[in-house]
Amino acid sequence: MVVVDNTFATPIKQNPLSLGANLVLHSASKFLGGHADALGGVACGAKDVIEKLYHYREINGASLAPMDAYSLLRGMKTLCLRIERQNESALIIAQWLQQHPLIEQVNYPGLESHPHHQIAKSQMRGYGGVLSFSVKGGLDSIKTFLPKLKYAHMAANLGCVETVVGPPVVTSHVECTAEERAAAEIPEGLVRYSCGIEDVQDLIQDLKQALTEIG
Ligand SMILES: Cc1ncc(COP(=O)(O)O)c(C=O)c1O
């Protein structure tokens, strides 16, 4: 069984079931809801698989809270508009970061230099609103650089209307050892950047001024 977490791509940009996956999962708390104000999840697949999940969910009591259901439904009304904007901004920011002398590496499948660019191009209609980059000077540099950002919120979250940044070393991969992060090719100075819907030139200016702090 092939299970795809499509949270980053969203159904607007990629449809794994039509590409042969059996089950597609989304953290609806991210792009689907889009406002960082509700927790929920989505599982999509063939009826027999979903029936099993539905039953498991029933006996475990993981019901969506009414207010979260309302917030997610309301958030999804603007999903398409938000995703178009966030995808466009992410590509522009990735390209801008790539030419910055203080940036070591930019990871974004929309960049032609990304090892999986051709696969992404063939199966996606956009490359997502999330990118990551590593800064020269590693963790010491990002400790200086991140607090200087005026528009980006520092949090472990992603996929909302506000731009959110978080170093994996203290967010998504905080529970790994330094050796495990190295094995997973996650530099200690990596920054995850989830584009919001702010003006992209404002976001670039913000990155520019914050990077001068370590330059
Ligand atoms: C790609 C991806 N999938 C799933 C999840 C889990 O989301 P939730 O906390 O809504 O269960 C996350 C959380 O960061 C995520 O980034």
List keywords for this structure.
38% helix; 215 residues; binds pyridoxal-5'-phosphate; 2 domains; Aspartate Aminotransferase, domain 1; 5-stranded mixed β-sheet; 3-stranded mixed β-sheet; alpha/beta; Aspartate Aminotransferase, domain 2
Detail the poorly predicted runs.
Answer: none
Give the strand line-up of the largest sheet: 4-5-8-7-6
Computed Rg: 18 Å
Predict the CATH topology of the largest domain: Aspartate Aminotransferase, domain 1
- Find the CATH superfamily of the largest domain: Aspartate Aminotransferase, domain 1
As a percent range, the share of strand residues is 15-25%
Structural class: alpha/beta
